[in-house]
Amino acid sequence: MRFALILSLVIAAVAIVFTLQNTAATVVNVGPYTITASLAVVLIVTLSAGVLVGLLAGLPARFRAGQRAKKAERELATLTSSLQAPAAPAQPAAPSTPPKMVPVDGTTMPPASDAAETQRLAEDVALRTQQATGKQA
Description:
Blueprint: H1 2-21, E1 25-30, E2 33-38, H2 39-84, E3 102-104, E4 107-109, H3 115-136
Antiparallel strand pairs: 1-2, 3-4
């Protein structure tokens, strides 16, 4: 921000010096009109018109960027609130016998016929992962 202010002051100083040194009258034809003004005024008006055209050309891109930023902020707020929401209390598991484990390639897995127990274990892992993630956030 400070750099932009300093740069603006330098440009303004150069423009003032330029204006004071170029006071000669110049004739400018604009369509059917003829305008007589100093060279400095003509160049500064031309520069200003160019800056204005550039700003107007960049407005659609700035508008789209603002829309994307607002959408990203809404998504971030939604995700943050979902992470901060308290997790559902865990249901105490009914006392049961431990699942039967079958060795497969040096690892152990519950048998395929015990789908309900596998589902319960998957839900338990998901709940613990969610709780661990909530503690880190």
